[in-house]
Amino acid sequence: MASNNSLTEQAYSININYKVILVQALVCVFLCINLFLITTFFLKDYFYTTTRYVLFAVSLFSDCLFLIMTDVLLILSYFGLTIQMWLCLIIYIVLSVYTFVTPFTLTAMVLERYVAICMPLRHAELCTTRTTLHLVLIIHSLSSVPCVVIISIFFASSALSFYTAGRICSVEMFILYRWQGHLRSAISQFYFLIMCVVIVFSYIQIMKVAKVASGQNKKSTWKGLRTVILHAFQLLLCLIQLWCPFIEAAVLQVDFMLFINVRYFNYITFIIAPRCLSPLIYGLRDDLFFQAVTGRKTTTMTDCMRIKLFICCSGRTTTSNM
């Protein structure tokens, strides 16, 4: 009997090892891709003076930071390593903020596509570098609201000795009361509703423009529409992540092994997978960025490219006026 238990524990350990190794491999691959794209972003002047590329870089940075922090928590939890709670608090703050930064950034990118396609005459006026920086600050401010609420309640309720204690770090330990979880859920659902309204509104408006567009404008509009759809799918995966703690808490009451498997599935599907879609959407589908990534000769930093872009915009304006 003891021998059978030993074999079961060994098989369970090997299974978990495979899962942890797979996560490390996926995280390393996505981090390398994202860091390469971030480096490419800073190599071209045109990219960090254009709203959609700045937002793309913000989402890449957010994804990298989020993947690193969640992977650190996974390793600490797997090996049972304890850290002081003040350090765990810093990790929780970063994770709490950047859980919402990516969805908000995706929503802002959809709005940028809406402005570019449905209001081309005002795109240059609305999507300036200064406006983009303000938008990034607004994104981080809104993303900080749930964290500020939870941390404020935690500071008011916890003793000073708690911060120097060594424990296995988990984000759940900062939720001291059940109503805190309900409050966090309410804020998340409110954000989810706002983002869904923005996505649906932008999709409908772009669809209307796509139906009446012709020629090159029609091709560009439909490409923008497909980008919005990809962003919507990516945003859906990110927002499902907000529901995962409630699903996992319910499963934990049923079976612990099932809880581990569900949590692993959620981590792969709703945390890692959405973070690999941004490189696909802009790293491969966007012509200028793809040229920069593949090292092809591009003139985006020259006056010739700017003149070409101006001619294209002028052509769109003439078509829309006709």
UniProtKB/TrEMBL annotation:
Q: What is this protein called?
A: G-protein coupled receptors family 1 profile domain-containing protein
* Lineage, highest ranks first: Eukaryota, Metazoa, Chordata, Craniata, Vertebrata
Q: Which GO terms describe its molecular function?
A: G protein-coupled receptor activity; odorant binding; olfactory receptor activity
Species of provenance = Poecilia mexicana
Q: Which PROSITE patterns match?
A: G_PROTEIN_RECEP_F1_2 (PS50262)
- Matching PANTHER family, A to Z? G_PROTEIN_RECEP_F1_2 DOMAIN-CONTAINING PROTEIN (PTHR26451), GROWTH HORMONE SECRETAGOGUE RECEPTOR TYPE 1-LIKE-RELATED (PTHR26451:SF886)
Give the UniProt keywords, A-Z: Membrane, Transmembrane, Transmembrane helix
> Which compartments is it annotated to reside in?
Membrane
Q: Give residue ranges for domain G-protein coupled receptors family 1 profile.
A: 33-282
List residues traversing the bilayer. Answer: 20-43, 55-77, 83-111, 132-156, 186-207, 228-252, 264-284
Top-level taxon of the source organism:
Eukaryota
KW Transmembrane (keyword) present: yes
Kindly give the SUPFAM superfamilies that the UniProt entry links to this protein.
Family A G protein-coupled receptor-like
One GO cellular component term noted in the UniProt record for this chain: membrane
Q: Which Pfam families match?
A: 7tm_1 (PF00001)
